[in-house]
Automatic annotation (TrEMBL), chain A:
Belongs to the CcmF/CycK/Ccl1/NrfE/CcsA family. GO terms for cellular component: plasma membrane. Residues 315-645 form the Cytochrome c-type biogenesis protein CcmF C-terminal domain. It is a multi-pass membrane protein. Its main location: membrane. This is Heme lyase CcmF/NrfE family subunit.
From TrEMBL, chain B:
PANTHER family: THIOL:DISULFIDE INTERCHANGE PROTEIN DSBE. It comes from Gymnodinialimonas ceratoperidinii. It comes from the Bacteria. Transmembrane segments: none annotated. This is DsbE family thiol:disulfide interchange protein. InterPro entries: Periplasmic_diS_OxRdtase_DsbE, Redoxin, Thioredoxin_CS, Thioredoxin_domain, Thioredoxin_ResA/DsbE_sf. GO terms for biological process: cytochrome complex assembly. Belongs to the thioredoxin family. DsbE subfamily.
Length: 666, 185
C-alpha cells in the first residue's frame, strides 16, 4: 500500500510540474498575474508530493519491505538502520528521487523567499524550473520507477554494496546533489533572463546567493567524497581523476568561475552574457554528470546503474535543456548590452583572468574525460586517460591562477596599480621564498614542481592574510580599533579571506600528500617489523571479528617512534557474505604533520595463509589533513559570505544603485 | 561574426551530443577496457625462472622476439579457477599453436612445480613473481588474468578471470586472431 502511495504522489507531482511549466510563463507573457502567481501553489504542491514519495520509499527501506524491487536489490534486513535509511538514495532510482526532491525544494524556495524578485522574472524562472522537474519526474516514472514491485517477494535482500555502507558516503550524495541541483535555479534564472531579454545588477544579485549555496554544498560533497575514497577504499589516495569524480569537479570549477563573474555583473554591469553562459553551462555540466554516471558511457570505478535505455532518455533531456538553452543564448545574448569599461589592470581584469583559467581548466577536464569516447568513435581504438594527463594539463593552469588569486583582492575596480600592489607584497614574496627554502632544506627528493606549488600556496596564504590585515589596519591602529574594524567589515569580506586561505591550505595538503608520500607493501607474519617515515611498525597478528552483516579479519599493529610507543592500529579486511563483497577498512593514525595509514590485503597465497602471512600496505602521507581543513574553510567561507546581510536582505530595486567603492568582492 | 561567437556553445554542445548518441549504442561495452595497459607497452620487468621447471623466465625483450603475439597468463597453484582454465590454455597451445607465457604469481616454486607436473606444462616460458611486484606492474586485479601482447610488445587485450565458457573463449580467440593479423600485415 505504502509504495503505491509513493507512486501516486510522484504522478501527482508530475502533474503539478506540468501545470507550472506552462501557466506562469504564459501569464507573464500576457500580463495575467493570477496565472503568474499559480507557480506559488504548484511549486509547494510539488515539494509536498515528492516528499510523500520520498518518505514512502524511505519507509519501505526502514521496514525492509521486500515486495519493492529497489529494496530487494539494495538492502538487507540485517543492515544497520542508518544504512537502511541511506539505502533510500543508494541506488539509481532512489538517488533520482532525492535529485527531484531537492529540485522541487529549490523551486519552492524561489517561490517562498523570492518575494523581492520582480513578478515576471519569478514566474518565468519557476516555469523553467518546472521544465526540469517534468523531465526528471517523467524520467523516473518511465524508466526508473523506485516503487516497482516483485512477486513473490524474496525472503531477504541482496544488500547495499558495502563500499557504500559508510557514514561519509551516506551523506556525500545528498550534499553533492544539493550542489548539482542548486545550480538548476541559477540555470532557470539565466534562461528566464534571456527570455526577458534583460540582465542587470539586480539579476546578478539574485543569482549570487543561490550560486554560493550550491557551490558550498558541492564543495562539501566533493571533499567528503575524496575523504571517503581516502579512508574507505583502502588505497590511501584522495583523487583518481575517475570520470565520476571529474563530473562533479567540472561544475565546481565552472561554478567557482560563475561565483566570481556574477560579482562583476553585479558591481560593474560587465560580463553579462558571459555570466549567463556560465550559469547555463554550470548546470549543463551537472546534467552531463548525471548522464555520464548513469548511462554507462564511460568506464569508471564507481559508475552505477549502467543502462543504455536510461542513457538515451537522459540524452533527450540533455538535448532539450542544454541545446534549448544554448540556442536561446545564441539568439538573445547578442542583444544584451555590454557595460562597465575597465583597464587591463583592474579588479575586473583580474576576475576575467580567473574566469578564463577556470573555464580552460574545466574544458581540459571535460576533454580528458570524454577523450576516450571521441577516440573510440573516430578510430575505434580503445584507451583510457589516466592521472598523468590530468596532472600534466591541469596543474600548470592552476598555478598561475593561484598566483594571481593572491593579487586579485588588492586590485581596485576599473583601474588598478599593479606596481603598487607588488610593492606592498614584497615581504610576502620574500617570506614565501624563505619558507620554501626551509622546506627544501628539511625535506628531500621532492619534484621541482612540488616546491614551486608549495611556494605559490604559501604566497597566496600570506598575501590573503596581509590583505585582510590591511583592511582592518592591523598594527597601524590599536588592537581594539582593528577589532572594531573587523567587526564592521561585511561578512562577505571575511568569507573571501577564509575561502582563499582555505584553498591555499588545501593546496599544501594536495602537494604534501602526493609529492612526499612514502609507501611500503610487505608480507608480514606476526612479529614482522616495518620502518616507514621514522616510525617502526610491528605486526602483532590477526584475529577474527564478527560484525552485524560481515565477518572481519582484524590486524593489530604496534607503532613506535624512536623506541617510544605511539599507537596501535587495527586495519580490517571485511567480507560481507550476502553480497559477496570484501572491503578494506584502513586504520589511520592522524595528526597535523601527516597520516600513518595502514591497510591489509588478502592473505598472499595458500602457504602464506598457513603461516599467517598478510600483505600489509603502509603509507605515510604528510599534510594530508590540510586538504580537508582547507575544504572546510572553503565551505565556511562560502557560508560567511552567504550569511552577509547584503545578500540576505536580497536584491535592491531595479533602479541603479551606487555601490560603495570599498565593497570587497569574493 | 558576433552571432557566430554566441552560437558556438550550442554548436559545440551538438557535436558532443552526437558523440554521446554514438556512445549509447547498446553493443558497446565501455568496461571492455578494464586495464590502463591496453594499447600501451607491456611492463619492463624481468622475471626469473621458477626453479626446477626447466623452462626459462622472461623479460620484456622475450615478448617482442619472434614476430607473433604472445599470450601472457598470470596463474598460481593455489588459485582454483586457474586449475579450471589450465585445460583451455593447454588446448590453445596444442591445437592453435598459441605462444603462451606464464607469470607464476606469489607461489612457492615447489608448489608451482607440483601443479605443473600434475596438470602438464603448456607454457613456453614461466616467470616467477614470488613477491607480487611484477603483477602490480601488470595491473593485476586477481588471478587468473590473461593478456595478449602484440608482436611489438603492446598489450592488446586483457581477460579478467578464467577463460572459461563459450563467450569468453570466443572473445579471446577473436582478439588473438586480430592480433595475429595485425602482426602479419
Amino acid at each position: 500500500m505504502i509504495p503505491e502511495i509513493g507512486q501516486f504522489a510522484l504522478t501527482l507531482a508530475l502533474g503539478f510540474a506540468l501545470v507550472q511549466s506552462i501557466l506562469p510563463i504564459l501569464g507573464s507573457a500576457r500580463g495575467n498575474s493570477l496565472w503568474m502567481r499559480s507557480a506559488y501553489a504548484t511549486s509547494l504542491a510539488q515539494v509536498v508530493f515528492t516528499m510523500i514519495a520520498f518518505a514512502a520509499l524511505m519507509r519501505s527501506f526502514v521496514v525492509s519491505d521486500f515486495t519493492v524491487l529497489n529494496v530487494v536489490e539494495n538492502s538487507h534486513s540485517l543492515k544497520p538502520l542508518l544504512f537502511k535509511i541511506a539505502g533510500t538514495w543508494g541506488s539509481h532510482e532512489g538517488s533520482l528521487l532525492l535529485w527531484v526532491l531537492i529540485l522541487t525544494v529549490f523551486g519552492a524556495g524561489v517561490s517562498v523567499f523570492g518575494t523581492n524578485i520582480s513578478a515576471g522574472l519569478r514566474a518565468r524562472t519557476l516555469s523553467v524550473q518546472a521544465w526540469i522537474s517534468v523531465g526528471f519526474f517523467s524520467f523516473m516514472l518511465f524508466t526508473s520507477n523506485p516503487f516497482e514491485r516483485v512477486f513473490p517477494p524474496p525472503t531477504d535482500g541482496q544488500d547495499l554494496n558495502p563500499l557504500l555502507q559508510d557514514v561519509g558516503l551516506a551523506i556525500h550524495p545528498p550534499l553533492l546533489y544539493i550542489g548539482y541541483v542548486g545550480f538548476s535555479i541559477v540555470f532557470s534564472f539565466a534562461v528566464a533572463a534571456l527570455i526577458e531579454g534583460r540582465v542587470d545588477a539586480a539579476w546578478a544579485r539574485w543569482v549570487r546567493p543561490w550560486t554560493l549555496a550550491a557551490w558550498m554544498s558541492l564543495t562539501a560533497g566533493i571533499a567528503l567524497g575524496s575523504w571517503w575514497a581516502y579512508y574507505e577504499l583502502g588505497w590511501g589516495g584522495w583523487w583518481f581523476w575517475d570520470p565520476v569524480e571529474n563530473v562533479s569537479f567540472m561544475p565546481w570549477l565552472l561554478g567557482t568561475a560563475l561565483l566570481h563573474s556574477a560579482i562583476v555583473t553585479e558591481k560593474r554591469g560587465a560580463f553579462k552574457s558571459w555570466t549567463i553562459l556560465l550559469a547555463i553551462l554550470t548546470f549543463s555540466l551537472s546534467l552531463l554528470g548525471t548522464f555520464i554516471v548513469r548511462s554507462g558511457l564511460l568506464t569508471s570505478v564507481h559508475a552505477f546503474a549502467v543502462d543504455p535505455e536510461r542513457g538515451v532518455y537522459i540524452l533527450w533531456l540533455l538535448g532539450i535543456s542544454i541545446g534549448g538553452s544554448l540556442t536561446l543564448y545564441a539568439w538573445r545574448a547578442p542583444a544584451l548590452d555590454a557595460g562597465g569599461l575597465f583597464r587591463p589592470v583592474s579588479r575586473e581584469a583580474g576576475l576575467l583572468l580567473n574566469n578564463l583559467l577556470l573555464a580552460t581548466a574545466t574544458g581540459t577536464v571535460l576533454f580528458g574525460t570524454l577523450y576516450p569516447l571521441f577516440v573510440e568513435a573516430i578510430s575505434g581504438e580503445r584507451l583510457s586517460v589516466g592521472p598523468p594527463f590530468f596532472n600534466a594539463a591541469f596543474i600548470p593552469m592552476m598555478l598561475p591562477l593561484v598566483f594571481a588569486m593572491a593579487l586579485g583582492p588588492f586590485l581596485s575596480w576599473k583601474r588598478a596599480d599593479l606596481a603598487g600592489v607588488l610593492q606592498r607584497l614584497k615581504f610576502v614574496a620574500i617570506l614565501s621564498g624563505l619558507a620554501t627554502l626551509t622546506i627544501w632544506y628539511l625535506t628531500e627528493g621532492g619534484p621541482a614542481l612540488a616546491y614551486l606549488s608549495i611556494a605559490i600556496a604559501i604566497w597566496m596564504l600570506l598575501a590573503t592574510l596581509q590583505e585582510w590585515a590591511g583592511r582592518i589596519r592591523l598594527g597601524d591602529v590599536t588592537f581594539r580599533e582593528s577589532f572594531r574594524r573587523a567587526r564592521n567589515l561585511p561578512r562577505a569580506s571575511h568569507g573571501m579571506t577564509l575561502a582563499h586561505a582555505g584553498l591555499a591550505i588545501a593546496i599544501l595538503g594536495f602537494v604534501g600528500s602526493s609529492a612526499w608520500k612514502s609507501e611500503q607493501i610487505v608480507f608480514v607474519t606476526p612479529g614482522t617489523e616495518v620502518a616507514i617515515a621514522g616510525f617502526d611498525v610491528r605486526f602483532e597478528g590477526v584475529e577474527r571479528v564478527v560484525g552485524p552483516n560481515y565477518v572481519a579479519n582484524r590486524g593489530t599493529l604496534t607503532v613506535e617512534l624512536d623506541g617510544e610507543y605511539v599507537t596501535t592500529l587495527n586495519p580490517e579486511r571485511r567480507s560481507y557474505p550476502v553480497s559477496q563483497y570484501s572491503t578494506t577498512e584502513s586504520a589511520i593514525r592522524s595528526n597535523m604533520a601527516g597520516d600513518l595509514y595502514a591497510s591489509l590485503a588478502e592473505a598472499a597465497n595458500a602457504q602464506a595463509e598457513a603461516r599467517g602471512a598478510w600483505t600489509l600496505r603502509i603509507l605515510y602521507e604528510p599534510l594530508v589533513n590540510f586538504i580537508w581543513i582547507g575544504s572546510a574553510m572553503l565551505v565556511l567561507g562560502g557560508g560567511l559570505s552567504l550569511s552577509d546581510r547584503r545578500l540576505r536582505v536580497g536584491a535592491p530595486k531595479r533602479a541603479s544603485r551606487s555601490i560603495p567603492a570599498a565593497t570587497p568582492a569574493e | 561574426m558576433k552571432r557566430m561567437l554566441y552560437a558556438s556553445p550550442v554548436l559545440i554542445a551538438m557535436i558532443f551530443g552526437g558523440f554521446f548518441l554514438w556512445g549509447l549504442n547498446p553493443e558497446r561495452d565501455p568496461n571492455a577496457i578494464p586495464s590502463v595497459l591496453i594499447s600501451s607497452p607491456a611492463p619492463e620487468v624481468t622475471l626469473p625462472e621458477v626453479a626446477g621447471t626447466g623452462v626459462p623466465g622472461f623479460s620484456h625483450a622475450d615478448l617482442v622476439g619472434d614476430g607473433g603475439p604472445v599470450v601472457v597468463n598470470i596463474f598460481a597453484s593455489w588459485c582454483v579457477p586457474c586449475r579450471a582454465e589450465h585445460a583451455v590454455l593447454t588446448r590453445m597451445v596444442n591445437q592453435d599453436g598459441v605462444r603462451l607465457f606464464g607469470i607464476n604469481y606469489q607461489d612457492q616454486p615447489e608448489d608451482a612445480l607440483r601443479w605443473l607436473n600434475e596438470l602438464g606444462n603448456p607454457y613456453e616460458r614461466i616467470g616467477s613473481d614470488l613477491n607480487g611486484r611484477a603483477a602490480i606492474d601488470w595491473g593485476l586485479t586477481g588471478v587468473p588474468e590473461t593478456f595478449i601482447v602484440g608482436a611489438d610488445g603492446t598489450v592488446l587485450y586483457k581477460h579478467v578471470g578464467p577463460i572459461l565458457g563459450n563467450d569468453a573463449i570466443s572473445a579471446f580467440t577473436t582478439a588473438l586472431e586480430q592480433a595475429r593479423q595485425e602482426g602479419s600485415s
